[in-house]
Amino acid sequence: MTEHYGDYEVESFLGKGSIGKVFLARHRRIGRRVALKTVHLETKFEDEEDRTEFYKRLQREAELCGSMQHPNVVTLYEVGYDGDLVSFLATEYVDGETLLARLRRTRPLPLDEAIGIATDLLRGLAYAHSKGIIHRDIKPANILLTSDGRAKIADFGVARPLNSSLTATRSLVGTPNYMSPEQVKTTPVSPRSDLFSAGAVMYEMLTGVKPFAAPELSGILYNVVNLVPPRVTETNPSVPDAIARVVAKLLAKDANQRYATADEALSELELVDHARAAALESGELGLLTVDHGDDTTPLSTIVDYDPTPSPLRREVEPPTFSSVAVVLVAPLLA
Ligand code: AMP
After folding, report:
1. Interval 175-209: pLDDT, tens
2. Out of 7, 82, 137, 273, which one is annotated catalytic?
3. Average pLDDT over every residue of 210-238
4. How far apart are CA 157 and CA 179, in angstroms?
5. Among the four residues 161, 178, 241, 281, which has the most C-beta atoms within 10 Å?
6. Angle 111-130/191-207 helices, nearest 10 degrees?
């Protein structure tokens, strides 16, 4: 027999979430497909206060998501109640995968894909922040990728309204590898905390490694607060330095040293990316000159912006540069 939640009929199981099972379901009257986040009724609570906090959090997720409508944020359609308590959240179904699953298959990600996801992430954050909402748990598992390559932020479960008295709650909220230093220190957070987490996600997409990884939880927390990770370009030299600079600024330990807003970070990333595209184009033109025997062409520019690193680069002697460079850039011209 088909399982029902309100007007929704369960079609398949999507995954295990923090609050219970997530199903792909269909509204029996209007046919809309949704991701149905159900509340696990057997959830064990330490005490009544714990239970109240859990339902408060769900209700807050419903209220926060209910106020948002943006292409880079998963839309909430409906909230199911059992009496006064939330029993399910019906959200936009994203037919794709999480960034976590994507990174399991490929790491680092191709440069263009990583920049596309980072751009969508910053757009979604800029929007949430403009609504007065801090996400607080930006991580690959909470970024859903559509089949046409768009990224959407999900799971506002631990989000807090900017002015809420709960903002100052001194409890550790977030996921260690992506937490900001101010979250680790349980000091009050601002929207810049999400920018730090976005920086950690970008770092991982571009290098394939988590910036603050350590074998023990205490090591991760220590690293978040104290360790300045190697520059992105040290691990992946095919990333343009200007993009590595954006990531480093997002990961500044002192929140005041980061971008002031997600919009500011987004503008900088877009500027740098346009410059990269332009350099790539002019590099191609320069290369044609090389092919005609001009040894003074600044090949380093072309090599710096080559998104597919090749071990050939380091081994090539100057006189053979032009022919090898043609091989390197040929795929980019196609
Ligand atoms: P969560 O409770 O948000 O951590 O979700 C648990 C799992 O359910 C995720 O890892 C996804 O695989 C899946 N999921 C959650 N939300 C959606 C959605 N809107 N569309 C598709 N799958 C989702």
Report:
1. 799 999 999 999 989 999 999 999 999 999 999 99
2. 137
3. 96
4. 15
5. 178
6. 170
**Which of helix, strand or coil describes residue 191?**
helix
Tokens 């600024």 belong to residue? 249
What is the rounded average pLDDT for all residues in the chain? 81
Beta strand 143-146 with 133-134 is: unpaired
Choose which residue among 11, 13, 14, 74 to substitute to test ligand 1 binding: the one with the highest number of ligand atoms within 8 A of its C-beta: 14
The backbone torsions φ and ψ at residue 45, rounded to the nearest 5 degrees and listed phi first, read -115, 145
Give the gyration radius of the chain's Cα atoms.
23
The span from the first CA to the last CA of the chain, in angstroms, equals 53
The pLDDT assigned to 299 comes to 29
Predicted confidence band at 291 (pLDDT cuts at 50, 70, 90)?
Answer: very low
Q: What is the torsion angle, in degrees rounded to the nearest 10, for the CA atoms of residue 28, residue 34, residue 39 and residue 40?
A: 90
137 is catalytic: yes
Backbone dihedral region of 208: left (phi > 0), alpha (psi from -120 to 50 degrees) or beta? left
Please, which pLDDT band fits residue 302 given cuts at 50, 70 and 90? very low
Amino acid identity for residue 288 in this structure: L
Find the angle CA(69)-CA(73)-CA(77) to the nearest 5 degrees: 55
Distances from the Cα of 314 to the Cαs of 286, 301, 318, 328, in angstroms? 20, 14, 11, 13
Higher-pLDDT residue of 25 and 278 is 25
Ligand 1 pocket residues where CB is under 6 Å: 14-15, 17-18, 22, 35, 37, 74, 91-94, 98, 141, 144, 154-155
CA of 35 to the centre of ligand 1 (A): 7
Q: Which atom of ligand 1 is nearest to the CA of 20?
A: 2
The distance between the two most distant Cα atoms of the chain, rounded to a whole number of Å, is 79
CB half-sphere exposure, 102, CA atoms < 13 A:
26
The reported pLDDT for the residue numbered 73 is 96
- Which of ligand 1's atoms lies nearest the C-alpha of 74? 19
The CA distances from residue 219 to 176, 179, 226, 237, in Å, are: 10, 13, 10, 27
> Shortest CA distance to 279 belongs to which of 331, 205, 329?
329
Mean pLDDT, residues 151-157: 87
In the prediction, which pLDDT does 94 show?
95
